[in-house]
Amino acid sequence: MMPLLWLSFGIKDALDILLVAFLLYYIYVVLVRSTSKSLLYGIFSLLFVVFIARQLNMQMIGSIIDNFVGFGAIALVVIFQDEIRKFLFSLGSSKRWKEIRRKLFRDVRNESEEKNYVAPVVLACLNMAKKKCGALIAIQCDMDLSPYIHTGEIFTAEINARLIENIFFKNSPLHDGALIIAGNKIRAAGCILPVSNSENLDKDFGLRHRSALGLSQATDAKVIIISEERGKISFAQNGIIKKDITIEELQKAIQD
User: Fold this and answer.
1) What are 184-230's pLDDT values in tens digits?
2) For residue range 34-76, what is the model confidence (pLDDT) as tens digits?
3) Where are the alpha helices (DSSP H) in the chain?
4) Do the beta carbons of residue 86 and residue 143 sit within 8 Å?
5) Are residues 159 and 214 in the same domain?
6) Distance CA 102, CA 98 (A)
7) What is the domain range of residue 232?
8) Which phi and psi angles does 195 have, rounded to 5°?
């Protein structure tokens, strides 16, 4: 019987396995980057119990699980709504998919025009780091940052280094919030970002770093942090924060 099963195994089956493996890995990566590890381990433990109960045909625990599944599915959607949203966005916004879309739909937009904010942002960060002026700058990518834009002072302005530095000047009323850039314009300042509940953060990280990481876990935004105490630059994206990067590394991270 086994040889017949192997004979019937073809390219379609191999592709099916690869797609399932890719999907499970992608989901795992998104959850690990944006979810408390204790919660993640709890979910995996529950799934393991379900698997054992099914395999051993345990009727009592099986009936409890059957009644719990419907409610549990709804609860998971509510708990992981941000992660699900980010997962669906990220499927269509990776670099490879962007390249495919450009070729298929002949997207001929000039990348230098799309990212003409890079030079003034990098210059402002360099100047603020030298002065130990704390700052938090979020750059919108594919996912809309409107919910966070509306938590601050909304305005539209051309991006220039002096304006950014004035916004984060220590006596400025917008100094403590985040500045948000979208579509080559400054869209808001003094914005409130979601704070990460990650358990494995550096002890040196303050509210700015936690807010930057929180936004990078909830969206695909690029977030720049300048430490007010140390004058060092950090960069967060996709739930990962890089500490104490150079100005060259910052420029590359924004451009990528």
Assistant:
1) 999 999 999 999 877 777 777 889 999 999 999 888 899 999 999 89
2) 555 566 667 777 777 777 777 777 777 767 766 776 676 677 6
3) 2-8, 11-34, 37-55, 59-79, 81-91, 95-105, 111-114, 118-131, 146-149, 161-167, 207-218, 247-255
4) yes
5) yes
6) 6
7) 115-255
8) -90, 130
Q: Would you say the pTM of this structure is higher than 0.85?
A: no
Residue 108 belongs to some domain of the structure: no
Q: Work out how many domains the chain is built from and give that number.
A: 2
Residue 2 lies inside a defined structural domain of this protein = no
d(CA 237, CA 137): 12
The CB-side HSE value for 90 (13 A sphere, CA atoms) comes to 21
Alpha-carbon span 141 to 219, nearest angstrom: 9
76 and 121 fall within a common domain: no
Same domain, 150 and 247: yes
Residues 80, 163, single domain; the answer is: no
Strand pairing category for 135-139 and 153-157: unpaired
